[in-house]
Amino acid sequence: MQELEKQQAANDTQYLPPRHRTLPILASVTPIANYPSKLRIFQTNASRYWQVRCFLKGRTYTQSLKTTNKQAAISAAKQFFHIKTAELYADRVVARSDKSPKFADLLPGVLLGLQARVKRGEFATANIPIFLQRMHNSILPYFGDMSMDQIGYKELSAFMEMMSNRDLTATTVHQHMVAIRKVFAHAHGNNIIQNLPKFPVIKVADKPRGSFTVAEYRELVRLARQRIGEQVPQAFSKKYRSSSEILERHGVINADLHWLIHFMVNGFMRPGDIKFLKHKHVTIVRGKHIYLRLNLPETKKHDKPIVTLQPAVFVYERLLAKQKADGYGMPDDYVFLPELEYRKWLLVAYGWQFMYLQSLAGIAGNAANGQTRTIYSLRHTAMTFRLLYGGKIDLLTLARNARTSVEMIERFYASNLTAEMNIDLLQGKRSLGIREWVSF
């Protein structure tokens, strides 16, 4: 009996040495579904951020994921795993008896090459998770176990037909073929294969997003003001049901949504710019003209400042005053939803609200080209309004300010314009002298 009491006392937590604050909290350790069990995320008492740990090549690799959101941590852990395996196994191509490696064997080397392009500024970091998603969801299950010399025009055409039968758009199928081409380019460049196979051609038709008319724009702003705090029905957020916390906090019409609509229509920026726009990026210019100068981080290889229209100044000043009253508004604070740490969810939350507004206004799906209109359509609206009501603005000036090209304006932003929309400019005449008028 006395011996049993001693054993119980030895196992009592108050007699055990306390766990070090950097060790994982056991209840937080989470394996990643469909990935090796050696890949796990966890939390410690030493940091509020999630950590990732993975055992590879006889060594344990650990890294902070810089987020307190569990879903974001899982996504970051997957990217960490792919990048680390590419670094460690890039030089290992498994040789088959016929000396032709499998398609899947080349993925680490391709990924390492993409990482090198990111460092050189030739490839966007955000494109790597997209590339990996296409590989693991569709391409590797089909080609992964095939040797490189087994894949030719016939096999590529069969894959393309299989993807088309899944009711995917031509653009999506084309993007998957581009990902496959990267693997073959890597194999050819490293003399793993001697010749590149012929790739089937898929024609991708431009499908520009629709813009809003002046009346629709005003109605959206009116409803965004009127319905502040109203719950967004689940039908508009069911695609992202994995984050109940985001739904609870941002599944209502936000008080800043009407300012966002105003700001984008008068600011020309992409929604992706809104995610990372901070107060330190904004300068109010008051001179002959009053406007905002937005020194945004580089996007799509464009790094020149964006100049807004004057109404955007009014919007920004109101937002800044409101945020300062709420304890934000510092240079490193975000302009929209500054309390939202994981910025991926900003456009998701605003997207729910914006689609709900369109349904309330009765304009959902009413675009001239039949395309679903999203927050990105506000950028199209800004460009369309300038082309219609901006006087004799030239396309080069508009393209430079909107961080795009004249070709993209003609293909997408101006594709829905008709000659009749600008009938005044079309039928206008220059001021000529009396002799010119007589001869005319």
What does this molecule look like?
With 440 residues, the chain is of the alpha+beta class. The chain has 2 domains: 164 residues, no CATH class; 213 residues, hpI Integrase, Chain A (Orthogonal Bundle), CATH 1.10.443. It has 17 helices and 7 strands. Strand 3 and strand 4 form a beta hairpin. The longest helix is centred in the N-terminal third of the chain and has 20 residues. The C terminus is likely disordered.
Brief summary of the model shown:
The protein is of the alpha+beta class and 440 residues long. Helix content is 45%, strand content 8%.
Please write out the topology.
Elements: H1 2-11, E1 30-31, E2 40-44, E3 47-56, E4 59-64, H2 70-89, H3 107-119, H4 127-143, H5 153-164, H6 170-189, H7 214-226, H8 244-250, H9 257-265, H10 271-276, E5 282-286, E6 290-294, E7 306-307, H11 311-325, H12 344-361, H13 376-389, H14 395-401, H15 406-413, H16 423-427, H17 434-439
Antiparallel strand pairs: 1-2, 2-3, 3-4, 5-6, 6-7
Helix pairs in contact: 2-3, 7-9, 7-12, 9-11
